[in-house]
Amino acid sequence: MSEAVRFHFDVDGENFTSAGEASVAIKKTLRQMGFSPDIIRRVSIAMYEGEINMVIHAGGGKADVTVDSEKIEIVLADNGPGIADIGLAMQEGYSTAPDNIRSLGFGAGMGLPNMKRYTDSMDIQSTVGKGTTITMQIRIA
Amino acid sequence: MTVRELAQQLALTPLALPDGDRPVEGGYCGDLLSWVMGRAQSGQAWVTIMTNINVVAVAALTDVACVILAEGSAPEADVIARAESQGINLLQSEKASYELCVGVHRAAGV
Q: Which residue of B has its CA nearest to A115?
């Protein structure tokens, strides 16, 4: 494609059960655009983990997905509490999720590691008290 | 083996079976959703005791062939409705997760 295609989603921080709607929508869209199941799986899982994180920790946020001829870029931005120690947060099994979230099967400390595992690059910009922006890229060419 | 055949063989109760002809290739067992998200593979039967609505999203995103709710776990009606609308096969059993995994392996192991 010559023109980049962009998608924007507002992730509702109040509604935990609807978390995942943006990722499921992106999954359908990428399928219609003819991407391989592997690419679709990687994008939708990385985005879902990010969505869940924004709902659990940040009271929601914004998700922007851009598809161009070389890559799919996902930018997740929130105005939440920020991440004090990104190295610690990236460790599998480390989580600050509260018990009510754990009882739903989340909070295993796998969110950020999964996002890194499924993408080709991942950048985290975070300021404590201001928010977090995560940019992930998946190469398609 | 299809999901429908697996359900018959293991005496599973179909709660939603919108895609019963989907083939099953092996299985995955787990209750921590992010863990499952990172490891379950497309086409597997996913055995879990979790029943909240996020299970449907995880099943859709990992593209598993079906979800088998173990140990008599019972979802709310809205979870079943969501599974139906998103094309997710949702099955239920009184058997323990271990027993179901053995059954899946014998029937559709790869």
A: B38
Return all residues near B103 (Cβ < 8 A) that are at least 6 apart.
B9, B10, B95
**CB of A53 less than 8 A from some CB of B:** no
Task: Find, in chain A, the residue whose alpha carbon is nearest to that of B48.
Answer: A105
Q: In sequence order, what are the residues at sequence separation of 6 or more whose Cβ sits closer than 8 angstroms to the Cβ of residue B39? A: B28, B30
How many interface pairs between A and B have CB atoms less than 8 angstroms apart?
A: 70
- Expressed as residue numbers, the domain containing B93 is 3-108
CATH number, residue A83:
3.30.565.10
Please tell me the distance in Å from B46's CA to the nearest CA on chain A.
14
Tokens 């559709």 belong to which residue?
A: B108
**At B20, which CATH number?**
3.40.1390.20
The complex's ipTM works out to 0.73
Give the number of domains in chain B: 1
Handedness of CA A115, A117, A121, A124 (dihedral sign): positive
Residue A76 burial (CB count, 10 A): 27
Asked if A104 lies within 8 A of B62 by C-beta distance, the reply is: no
Q: Which residue of A has its CA nearest to B32?
A: A105
Q: Kindly report, residue by residue over A39-95, the tens digit of the pLDDT.
A: 999 999 999 999 999 999 999 999 999 999 999 999 999 999 999 999 999 999 999
Distance from CA of B104 to the nearest CA of A (A): 23
